[in-house]
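Amino Acid Chain and Its Fold in Token Form
===========================================
Structure side: the spatial fold of the chain, written down as a series of whole-number tokens.
Position: the record begins directly beneath this header, with no further notes in between.
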Amino acid sequence: MRWEQLFADLEAQARASEEAQWRGDVADRTRSERASIAWGERLLASVGRAVTVTCTDGERVSGTVIEAGSLWCLLEDGAGRSVVIPAPAVVAISGLAPSAAQARVVDSRLTFATLVRGISRDRSRVALALGSGDVQGVIAVVGADYCDVRTDVGETLTIPLARIVRCTAV
């Protein structure tokens, strides 16, 4: 009888040790997998979700993620306006999906400059939020790292793309 209890106790200890080892392995693998997920992949998985983006100018933009790339996101805000936010202008996002989506080849090639070129082609009127204020007008020309905006007052401004915090359709 004593031997049976001893063997039962040893078996229970072995099972507990195996289970603890398994849990540790799962936790290590989970941490390792999460470490390989990029911000843009979580953003891509959030298409269709409501999020709130805090930008470098302190403004918070709430809306639904319509499209995303690794370097930008396109939201539709509560007023139905499209808002493009480049990744460097993002301080924080709440509401992102906990999972990740693999970037398609097209997503990885669409840069913020590519999107601004598309807006320029459409001759859409926009409001550009810059760190120092807003500029409204039509994007006339898009270079490698700048855009020319014909403002509502008839002035043409050359703006470095890196200074744009948000581009909102108006």
Q: What stands out?
A: The domain at 39-169 is CATH 2.30.30.600 (SH3 type barrels.). The first strand starts at residue 50 and ends at 55. The helical segments are 2-35, 39-45, 105-109, 112-122.
